[in-house]
Specification:
Elements: E1 10-20, E2 25-34, E3 38-42, E4 52-57, E5 62-72, E6 75-80, H1 96-126
Antiparallel strand pairs: 1-2, 1-4, 2-3, 3-6, 4-5, 5-6
């Protein structure tokens, strides 16, 4: 069967939060795959969600307006509405340049950690 999606989806295990009832209700979920147009969420079967809600990705500093496209067996397919897939959540007054600098520093720190871990793995492999 040919693929009908317009956008490539990327596998994910990213934690997110569904927000509805004007922010009064939330529930945690896991994003199983993600694209610029939508996502597949893993969520408790018993959780009743409205058709439209906000999806908060705190690790990415993003907030998406979404609509449910399909449901089944603890999974929910959503599409992002109104081209808002790139909307950032407020970042405590941080402007784009400050945010970019902060993210570049964090990226550099994480790359250094990866290098250190690779070196440790190599050392452990050489000690046998």
């Amino acid at each position: 069967m040919p693929e009908s999606r317009k956008n490539e989806r990327i596998r994910s295990l990213l934690g997110a939060r569904v927000i509805f009832n004007n922010g009064a209700s939330t529930c945690d979920c896991i994003i199983r795959n993600f694209s610029s147009a939508g996502a597949r969420l893993e969520i408790a079967d018993s959780m009743a969600l409205p058709t439209e809600f906000n999806l908060d990705l705190p690790h990415k500093g993003r907030l998406y307006r979404a609509r449910i496209v399909w449901r089944g067996d603890g999974l929910v397919g959503i599409e992002f509405l109104d081209g808002q897939a790139a909307r950032s959540t407020p970042d405590d007054g941080e402007n784009e340049a400050e945010r970019s600098d902060r993210l570049m520093k964090e990226n550099t720190r994480l790359k250094a950690q990866i290098l250190e871990l690779r070196q440790r793995v190599a050392q452990l492999g050489g000690e046998e």
